[in-house]
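Entry 14. Two folds queued back to back today. First construct below, sequence then structure tokens.
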Amino acid sequence: MGLKSKKYSIESTDYQVGQDNISKWGMDVHNTVFVVSLGLSILFIVTLLALPPADAKAAIDFIKGAALSKFDFLFMWGANILLVVAIILAFSPLGKIRLGGDQATPDYSKTSWIAMLFAAGMGIGLIFWGVAEPTAFFTNWFGTPLNAEPYTEAGRELALGATVFHWGLHAWAIYGMTALSLAYFVYNKGLPLSMRSVFYPLLGDRVWGKTGDLIDVLTVLVTLFGLATSLGLGGAQAASGISHVFGIENNLYLQQAIIVLIMGLAIVSVIRGMDGGVKFLSNLNMVIAFVFLGLIAVFNFTTVLDSLVTAVTGYVKNILPLSQTSGRDDTAWLHGWTVFYWAWWVAYAPLFGMFVARISKGRTVREFLLCVLLIPTLVTTAWMSVFGGVAIQQVIDKVGQLGLDQGIADVSLSLFYMLDAYPLGNVLSVIAVVLIVVFFVTTLDSGSIVIDGMTAGGKLEVPIKQKVVWAVISGAIAMLMLWIGGTESVQTLQSITIIAALPFTIILLLGCVSLMKGLMTEVDKPQVSTNQVNE
């Protein structure tokens, strides 16, 4: 295979990629991981249908609350450690290591690569929270960061700075270190594209047995439920936008129809393949998003410029206080927002990591980490500054529905309320709905590719029908959750994702240790002098 070092590689083990797979009904799947993941997913659905929704939700919320309150330090310091390690690694001599070997070349242009990693990471979240989150922090909607005084200039600075904090370097460090670990062991060690491969330096051949199966099943479930939750929430938000713009009644049927549309488009994208599907949609996402961002920025140039400076200032000044868990008086805000976000990013890390690993061959470790950390952070800073800054200004100036409500009345409509204040508000709202749908198609497409890879023993090339199966299952779970309990059931799924993120934080931290052990095998050892005489 031309590996620089055989240590911790596929050549140092008797395992062969796909050896535990079975071929049936035109599919090629890992027997244990596929069957157990599918079985547990169905069991979860049946159990939820059998129990009273209120009782099930109360129990899950109790566990989620305990996880957030008792282990907030683990989520917070886990994110801090991943960020520090990413920065050190990027600027260390190990940063010169190239994914795939010294002669490897990228499969995609840097523009397409960045577009795909950004769309898979958190593109849809920016649409949902771009207006709502900064406005919530400024107006004391369930607390303010560091107990800042709401409706003040200091509160505005912290509102914008804390929003960037949630979507900035820490978030992308969680994503980036997961993706780098997977990409390295796949392309430099020849191991299968699955989470178990990351732990080969720590566990040895045990990763091919039950321990590895457990790691992969947990990864599949975290990814599957996170994906279904996003579909449900996205369907609800898109339905709110369509109802608001076109006057159509926002009901369960509209939400279900939107999810079916997203699922159908995702299946078409899957069939078209990586280049014709995800790559095309990701590039389309970026074009629409930047046009959308540019229009709002042009309409509010002075406000946007001031908000951008304020957001960066607030972020830099408060990144250390916001990164602490001890000595905080804003515990409710900390648990409700920051700890929740860190758990959410951890839960999404497998989806992002495995997808980005597939498209990152040929990048150096330094290029990979710096691009993943800095470019999305700059884009999210600009996005939150533009939409959040304009929304806050509307509250201050008492403009539009946000100004009338002096804050948030309906989270899913906050973006559309902001857009209503413009003469072209309806046109902008239509663009927003299109952007939401396209982002979700990309998310479901990339998510089904990831889940399929994990349940296919880490194979990179598998039958298309397997990807279609997981796209359908993800959509079906989302539709079922909306049918049996509306948005509360989707929020229950969200809570389960957070609970699963607790052990996954430990897994990611151990993965960093394993990655370092692997990278060190690539370092050239000093040659022993030929003049030395054996004693």
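Second construct, same run, same settings:
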Amino acid sequence: MCAFAVGDMKGVSPNDDRKPQGAGSASDASRSLSPQLAEIASNGAPGKAYSPIVLAGLVRLFEFSMLLVCGLVIHEWHVAAIWGRSLDYYVVMPLMALTAVIILQSLGLYSTASFRAPVRDGLKVAAGWSLVFVVTLAAVFFFKLDDSFSRVWLLGWYASGLALLACERIALAFLVRMLTQQGKLDRRTVIVGGGELADPVLRELAAQDDGDLRILGVFDDRTDNRSPDVVAGYPKLGTVDDLVEFARHTRLDLVIFTLPISAETRLLQMLRKLWVLPIDIRLAAHTNKLRFRPRSYSYIGNVPVIDVFDKPIADWDVIVKSVFDKIVGTICLILLSPVMALTALAVKLDSRGPVLFKQVRYGFNNEKIEVYKFRSMYVDQLDHNAVKQVTKGDPRVTRVGRIIRKTSLDELPQLFNVVFKGNLSLVGPRPHAIVARAADHLYDDVVDGYFARHRVKPGLTGWAQINGWRGETDTPEKIQKRVECDLYYIENWSILLDIYILAMTPFALLKAENAY
């Protein structure tokens, strides 16, 4: 069921059992940044970035709705009030509004660069809207529909629609510029690999006036004269190990490698350190003598790149998953509230102490989060750091605790994390305690690439849980299988997979054998 190997990734041999440096150990997690990196991290864009793809989609939807409503208002004011309503209008108006969006899209007017320049692209917007009416008038003429549509309506919709588009694009420009100044639309980018190969890439990227890249600097493991301290005006900030820790402290969206494909060993060593991060990784192609078909490349501005890794669950997928979590999580919270109330009462009557128990665990991108649980241990034996795993017949567990742990009722308060705090999803890799161990070894010491499971938000249930890998992890094999399933889920995510996992979770709980 869990076919994805933990050490297996694009271009990296799964049989290479060397542990990635800088990404996988507890000591790395506590490394402090250099003063220079700490300053850049502290000055980073606050909060999350807004996806340009989502922004463009919302603008399309808004303009379609705006133009359609405009046509409907003029129709109600002039046509319906005098001649009554006709089905022809209600068919034609959505088609014309949709055609307008399609034409504006074909003219390249749904990009952040276009949103920033309403004056420069204003004539294109006017031409696109005008073309819709030229096509409509031609159809009216050739199909002899002169008496079917009001000329006043057509002229009024054209003029008012054009005015609305102009005003909306000017307002949109102000909004986009404000978001850009706040760093909300920037793709925070670093270059890996300095020297002569990085110089033309950096100059080409910096020359893009309308680009959304914000280049922070260069990282390179080399310390000799092949990697100077400044490349094309951008500072060298540290090594790849420093980059991994830097990405844990600030928002980072994109890493561009400027290494030639011929440097395979060095390239793979760096990728083994970076693939655990929730970022896009690209290889600049113009530095390589090997040439592929143009369709083999994607482009960042005018720079051709080869896609190495993509951030999982990005753009619209983030919106879909978040909305799904909020809606379904709220429904579950309402439906399960009687069960939660009875469980809380049982916990309170069974032993003294608080009903709820908070524990610090790893969340998205190794962030530390607090998750809620019903208390299942005696209050004087609580293990807030999960130093010792609960085993069968563990004397620390209360009578009610054994029942709620076996049935996972103790996890129900984490619905508050999903609905209100937003640091958990309904479905995802289960959040592990900071010092969780398997056979007296930290999880990240046991599993190569363990932290790659943190590229997405953790969840209440997941692919590992419905495949039987829940409960005690007393052997390295158990945590290995769990992480394999987590990575399979990340690589194959879809909203249908989330629905399937949620549907199968109750059945998986009934078959659980190693949950104590």
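Quick look at the second one. The longest helix spans residues 52-83. The CA atoms of residues 276 and 465 lie 22 Å apart.
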